[in-house]
Amino acid sequence: MELPVASDAVGARESKFDWFCETVSTDVMPIALSTRNAADFRASITDLDLGVVRLSVVACSPVLSRRTSSHVRRGDPEHLQLALVTQGSLRISQRRNESVVAGGLVLTDTSRPSEGACVGGQIESVVMQIPRQAVALRPDRMDRLLARSMAADTGSGAILAGFLRTLLSHAPACRPEELRGMGSVALDLATAFLARQLGDPGQARGEARAQETLQRIHRFIENNLGDPGLTPQMIADRHNMSLRRLYVLFGDQPLTLAAHIRRSRLERAHADLAREDLNGQPVQAIAARWGFSSATGFSRGFREAYGITPTEHRARLRSRTPSKGGRGRG
Predict the structure, then answer these.
(1) What is the pTM for the complete model shown?
(2) Does residue 330 register a pLDDT over 50?
(3) Strands 64-67, 32-34: parallel, antiparallel or unpaired by DSSP?
């Protein structure tokens, strides 16, 4: 668990509000913040790393926030942010939805423009940062929940809110592996809560199962990229499904299944070619490690993806690395 960082700890020469803006924009996402009382601004941020998700407690003086399309292009963690407002009121708008949230939960998406404002005095919220791909619900249905106030005092909302409060209270006594386990529990509770908000638990469960299958296939692909025999048919066979059903699962993915495998292999090879400890290995050996059986095909695909050949990529990195022992003490 990371220690709380309070603006009062900032050096006297640095504006507390400037510190807050820089911290949020750097550690969370690019965003424009403004306030009417910068001179008396107060803020604190506490982060808790739970492995699959991250929990942040943010308390601050009244502030306005605006995240534009330009901010999204500059930096996007591709997270869903599920916030429990524990003090004050928050007005939030996103995708033509707008709500004022006090004591409840609200969902936002870092990949979309949004606006927020504190209503009244100081505000405090517990924010769960969830990678979008970790939520086993369809993205197009999740859009319906953005910027909607959701109750945190009844049903699954109360269970989730109570768990988050208890977790924050007892986290300092937990070991890192315990916190990672609690992160999985928090993700499951958040997914169940959001599924209930969609209003059709049966359909939501079906979507959740489909997304879980998709995630399992993604993990299988990542673990078998080095196998030249990794093909859509092989993946379908190993998961006891038809090739047609496999393609349906990948139907709303940004890349086709074959393109996803190819891109993932190129990314791994690109990273290995930059590793100093692998400088002695031939380019083709690294390509073969990630499932490329043809040197020509690998070189052509690499150039299409990165604009240079694998050999040029490695040479460029070597030219930037100072030789060991080359520096003397002046």
Answers:
(1) 0.62
(2) no
(3) antiparallel
Contact 250, 257 (CB under 8 A): yes
> What's the burial of 151, exposed, middle or buried (CB within 10 Å: 0-12/13-18/19+)?
middle
Strand-pairing partners, residue 84, are 105, 126
Output DSSP code: residue 13. Answer: T
Distance of CA 330 to the CA centre of its chain: 45
DSSP 99: E
Spatial contact of 62 and 35, defined as CB atoms under 8 Å apart:
yes
Pairing relationship of beta strands 114-131 and 79-94 according to DSSP bridges = antiparallel
| Per-residue 3-state assignment (H helix, E strand, C coil) for 135-173 | CCCCHHHHHHHECCCECCCCHHHHHHHHHHHHHHHHHHH
> How many Å separate Cα 132 from the centre of its chain?
6
- Exposed / middle / buried, residue 94 (Cβ in 10 Å: 0-12, 13-18, 19+): buried
Question: 186: Cβ–Cβ under 8 A, 6 or more apart, which residues?
Answer: 50, 53, 55, 128, 160, 163, 164, 167
Task: Write the DSSP string, 32-83.
Answer: EEE-S-GGG--EEEEEEE-SSSEEEEEEESS-EEEE-HHHHHH----EEEEE
d(CA 320, CA 313): 11
SS (H, E, C) 237-291: HHCCCCHHHHHHHCCCCCCCHHHHHHHHHHHHHHHHHCCHHHCCCCHHHHHHHCC
pLDDT tens profile 215-271: 888 889 988 999 999 999 999 999 988 988 888 888 766 678 888 899 999 999 999
DSSP H/E element including 229:
none
Distance CA 42, CA 86 (A): 17
Rounded distance, CA 133 to CA 111, Å? Answer: 13
Contact assessment for residue 110 and residue 127, using Cβ atoms and an 8 Å cutoff:
no
Residues 6+ apart with CB under 8 A from 113: 67, 68, 69, 71, 72, 94
For residue 134, give the DSSP letter: G
